[in-house]
Amino acid sequence: MADFDPHHYPELDPRVEELVTDIIGRVADKWTMIVLEALTEHGEMRFSKLRAECGGISQKMLTQTVRAMERDGLLIRTVHPVIPPRVEYRLTELGGSLAEAFCGVWVWAARNFDRIETSRAAFDGRNAA
Q: From its phi and psi, is residue 80 left (phi > 0), alpha (psi between -120 and 50) or beta?
């Protein structure tokens, strides 16, 4: 993002600004990021397997999360016409590109882990009293 300078783009489309705000809110949601990571790592998965990979998520929250991701075009929900119905989820190309974009956050966190931990410990030490 170092190349992006909003002053060079004075007339940003307000619809794009709204979309960016919405997408940041979506990916800032911990469950969306965890679902994104699970599907990136494991590929297409059934609901029960996806839920197991997203340790601690309720059925209701996973349903809400995948529906929101499907609405945004980040994943595809496929219902196979068998009894009982088999439902599988996989990332779309759009979802995969979002996962790639946020991969940089993981790289940054790994690169700066020690610095952040040191800063947190110093802050906590100063504010413990």
A: beta
